[in-house]
Write a structure and sequence with these properties.
Layout: H1 2-21, H2 23-43, H3 45-49, E1 56-62, H4 67-77, E2 82-87, H5 90-98, E3 104-108, H6 112-115, E4 125-129, H7 135-161, H8 173-176, H9 194-208, H10 211-224, H11 226-232, H12 237-269, H13 281-305, H14 309-326, H15 338-343, H16 348-360, H17 366-388
Parallel strand pairs: 1-2, 1-3
Antiparallel strand pairs: 3-4
Length: about 400
């Protein structure tokens, strides 16, 4: 047992020295996902905010100028997500919208007050939209305008029905409907941010990208005779694998916490949303360790199949990108067609991502990550078993 411990100790020392000498190969494991987290969190910020937090800037041109149209404008001004500017000239408003200074021009037609309370009311409002405005923003804006108009009409109808009872007031749509997001933490209810979604995704991706340095180092050792010398010292494959698993699992943990620091401190510096780290760290440790074990085991297996450093670089990068694309890292699973959603289970990154989302977004505990963790550990064991049967 003591001899086994000494052999493992020297093998780990050899691996640590090799890693330190090959720092340039490790640097991309940290810098690449950091840049992805920063870029994707900022680029997708408005998408993840959806409609609830996105500010809409628009111009109102009121050709009616009667009490009812002024009432509509007053109601629109109450919405914090609407940045409203009033102009008298429709041509000026359309020119500003055409130049993309504003997202919309809202024209209140001259017949607005006369037609508003009629059952067959038509052409009350016209909307001119800037070409860069996204489809979901246009839908959000139009639904808000329609909501405000219907609220005024309904209020008028209810007031007419209750004109002899002043204690009754018509409910508004905001009074009748309240929307909530469900979290384990009672103090949270806001929509998940792009940072919450991107940090877990790119953590998983970065952990699996150890394929390249592991394969490169193993092939180099095979070429310079290091593996032959280890065999001559009666070092088993188990010792060799352990000497690679342990250091790279430590590197994966360093990746994990460096990515979290980027989400907490770096992304907000560029105007992005800060990563919320009010999470279960034991659950995080379990799922991250399982992802790491699966990733390193798979990397060792691929390394036994490759014959050159060039081959390792190409196949390592290609396999990582394919697993990321299929596993919902690069394209969120929710926007995939049903067939592709079913296929995500084929990618180990998908299991890792689901576990990470359980921790960072759904704020679940240890029980929630045990199944995904078990699958990843099994994947790592199968990979190492296949690698053990190969000639190094």
């Amino acid at each position: 047992m003591k001899k086994l411990y000494q052999t493992l100790k020297y093998a780990l020392k050899k691996e640590s020295i090799a890693l330190w000498r090959n720092r340039s190969a490790l640097l991309p494991l940290f810098l690449m996902p950091m840049m992805f987290i920063l870029i994707m969190s900022l680029a997708q910020q408005d998408i993840y905010k959806e409609y609830t937090n996105s500010e809409v800037s628009y111009i109102v041109v009121n050709l009616d100028k009667q009490e009812r149209s002024l009432k509509l404008i007053s109601e629109l001004k109450k919405d914090k997500n609407f940045k409203l500017v009033e102009l008298d000239s429709l041509e000026e408003a359309k020119a500003l919208t055409l130049d993309e200074k504003y997202m919309f021009t809202l024209l209140i037609n001259p017949n607005f007050s006369k037609q508003l309370y009629k059952i067959t009311a038509k052409n009350l409002i016209e909307i001119y939209t800037a070409s860069i405005t996204k489809a979901h923003q246009k839908l959000y804006f139009e639904s808000k305008i329609a909501q405000k108009i219907m609220a005024i009409k309904i209020k008028k109808m209810v007031n007419s029905m209750t004109m002899y009872n002043e204690t009754i007031k018509a409910s508004t749509p905001n009074d009748m409907i309240h929307s909530h997001y469900l979290y384990r933490s009672e103090h949270k209810s806001q929509i998940p941010t792009s940072t919450q979604q991107n940090v877990p995704a790119w953590i998983v991706f970065s952990m699996f990208f150890v394929i390249i340095p592991i394969a490169t180092l193993l092939i180099t050792e095979r070429g310079d005779g290091t593996l032959d010398r280890l065999k001559a010292m009666n070092s088993s494959k188990a010792i060799l694998f352990a000497s690679k698993i342990i250091p790279y699992m430590i590197i994966n943990q360093l990746q994990l916490y460096s990515m979290i620091l980027v989400g907490v401190y770096i992304v907000p510096l560029f105007g992005g949303d800060r990563l919320d780290v009010d999470i279960n760290f034991l659950a995080l440790f379990i799922i991250s360790t399982s992802i790491s074990f699966g990733a390193v085991g798979f990397a060792i297996f691929l390394s036994t199949l490759m014959k050159s450093v060039e081959q390792a670089s190409i196949i390592g990068a290609l396999s990582g990108v394919i697993m990321g694309a299929v596993g919902g890292i690069m394209i969120p699973k929710l926007v995939m067609p049903s067939l592709m959603q079913d296929m995500t289970v084929l990618s180990p990154m998908s299991w890792g991502l689901e576990g990470m989302l359980d921790v960072f977004v759904r704020e679940l505990g240890v029980e929630s990550v045990l199944y995904d963790s078990s699958v990843l550990v099994l994947f790592g064991i199968i990979s190492l078993t296949l690698a053990y049967g190969k000639k190094l």
